[in-house]
């Protein structure tokens, strides 16, 4: 009996629970039937529209000159600091010159020794030249003696044939002739030897002169190294960086260390704006640009695009170029290294028919078949809602009775809020007029607010 009562109570509670659930479901259904879809709209408008590229960059001097050291040593004196104004030729620092002065003295002594050696070999060359002249005179004397001995030997030979002189006298003349011939040959050999010694002396003179030139070059190099111990400014400007202190060692064995950086003129500066590759096609050299800095957040500064540097680099997988903007800084308020927020106008229309950018990305949450039917009914080509070729886009406006009407259009320039309507797409049935309510979103009880159109292209001239 108790079990029957327990089963009855369980059936009663299950019946009551099912009734409550049915009532709740009925309530939610009636509420959904009672609340229609609410569309979020913005009106189309006419007015001025400006497209621009926005980027961040860094303020830099127009020209910076790194000042290094050609020689190594210990820094003895430093005469300038950060922000010091300098003139071309002004002394910035002094490396200890003691070692280089000693090198100059050594090179000067070597040059003096080489010059003395040159004078010595030149004097010896003069002696050799005199020896040649003496040998040639002696050779001439020997030739004369040979000629006399030859004549005398011939005469005495004739007399001996006639029996007028004894034979030994003839033999003596022949011996004298042979001695004269030998003496003449010896004199010629001495002349040739003297000439060879002279040629050797000439070579020694040339070698001595080359040694003098080498020693003079070594002295000039030592004097130049001594001058390089004095670090001077190559240009007028302001010291913006100093990386050396008194007592610090300077090592210039492999490459010249950078001791100072001088900004040539802070009254003319540049902004290096980092622009990605999709924006460079809209930026033109000579275009006006504006920028702001954190130091003066309420002021706008003006400049002009001077170049788009071709050395691209990659930042977070984005190909980036440096766009250079020149500007004047007459009061020196802007400083190197400050971050600049740059705006470069790329297009402007004074009286543009504009639609909100959000309307270009909204599509009603309808079945695909219903969407296709609406597109065909209002003459919207497929490119307007798929590939967006030739700038074609679709917006949805509210017609009579808040009925949704797709309108195909051709988009022009755009800022961050609105896009210009260039024209209606050929074949489209709808038109856009100022004041038309364009749908940017929808609120449906228990349903998503809407979905974005598949991949519209970036509006022209925007980041």
The total count of helices amounts to 7
Quick check: average pLDDT?
A: 85
Structural class comes to alpha+beta
Give the fraction of residues assigned to helices: 25-40%
Tell me the Rg in angstroms: 53 Å
Main sheet record: 6 strands, antiparallel, barrel
What descriptors fit this protein?
alpha+beta, elongated, 463 residues, six-stranded antiparallel beta barrel
Describe the structure.
- This protein has 463 residues and is α+β, with helices and mostly antiparallel strands.
- Helices cover 39% and strands 33% of the residues.
- It has seven helices and 22 strands.
- The strands form five sheets. The chain has a six-stranded antiparallel beta barrel. A four-stranded antiparallel β-sheet has the order 3-10-8-5, with no helix packed on it. A four-stranded antiparallel β-sheet has the order 7-6-4-9.
- The protein is elongated.
